[in-house]
């Protein structure tokens, strides 16, 4: 039963309200002023406070600060503007006198329901944060604990951060976590992959350009660095930044100023830089390919992400997390990973790291027809499994980083001469019927239907 504190100085109205609420299953405590209520009870101990705006002594709105329960303010018609003011101060609702009983009960019900939901959400959020110390980053092993610790410490500062790690280890995820936990979290996060922009365009893309600054530049345009003003600039693969662009970036970091390509004047920008690379920047400096002064500017704080093969104990948890995420994204019922699948994943070296695992799981989810994902569906050998990859001397196992369609094609073409249709289908984690359909769709007929493969 929800407990309501009713604060109303007019005895007739208070009694009528008390009866109405009690009839509808609420427990009610009454007071004629805030002072009296505070003397008698802990204001925090109620599920809801229903207070008149005009009371002897403090107004009803003063209750808002003294309780974590939702507060509904009651007011007469004449003072609707002050009711609006009450909402601004944090009341969850207001009801105008004289009351319509149904309306009042509806307001009470709604306030209680919303408060319950808020509390549930807060509990859920706390649970998620407890499970994964930094939102959305799974990892319990010692090296990942160190990563989380660094994130906590460095995120709230304005220090430049250099994230190091092989491709697919989660560098962008860490950059996002740093931004979200910084004072700049309400500002933009601009993520730029320096390796993905052609060298001839990168300066203009990053720093903007003036009208006619180079062939093809029709109008003036601001760059990505300017768009990050007030927020965070994440430069992925910073080792790929051409020399001239390195100079411009240094100026932004040193002087807080940006000069567009083709412009003589500078504009002020306020950015925090997070950079990432899978390359050895010190070696690039030694080889004269990366400016030493820029290196020292960005290498203030390092966060090193270990490759997945060095955090094998985290693989089961990570695989389940990615499977759940993928099923949700693809609108599929939740699937499970068999014990053998988990073991196979723990044995594998994951050269493409977490991204490769994510792709492998996504492919298995799309191909799967049952509720459990087996090692074969992941394209991995079970410990003692008879299925591919085949015996020594046979063809190379099919690569894991292919698109779904290409993986199917390669798998079938690689193994169809040495495997029955049943074994092929099992290896792909699909039924024989689905294999036949896919063969039709992808234009890879069974060798038996025109060639000499085995049937099964
Ligand atoms: N510890 C982790 N927990 C959960 N998901 C992860 C984790 N690490 C990486 N991922 C996921 O793996 C994918 C690849 O991560 P991300 O893009 O951050 O890697 P990256 O190191 O920036 O890769 P690249 O260097 O190739 O750009 C993303 O979808 C990311 O959400």
TrEMBL record:
Residues 3-112 form the Response regulatory domain. Residues 436-456 are annotated as: Disordered. Gene3D superfamilies: 1.10.8.60, 3.40.50.2300, P-loop containing nucleotide triphosphate hydrolases. Keywords: ATP-binding, DNA-binding, Nucleotide-binding, Phosphoprotein. It comes from the Bacteria. Pfam families: AAA_lid_14, Response_reg, Sigma54_activat. Residues 137-366 form the Sigma-54 factor interaction domain. InterPro entries: AAA+_ATPase, AAA_lid_NorR, CheY-like_superfamily, Homeodomain-like_sf, P-loop_NTPase, Sig_transdc_resp-reg_receiver, Sigma_54_int, Sigma_54_int_dom_ATP-bd_1. The modification 4-aspartylphosphate is found at residue 52. This is Response regulator.
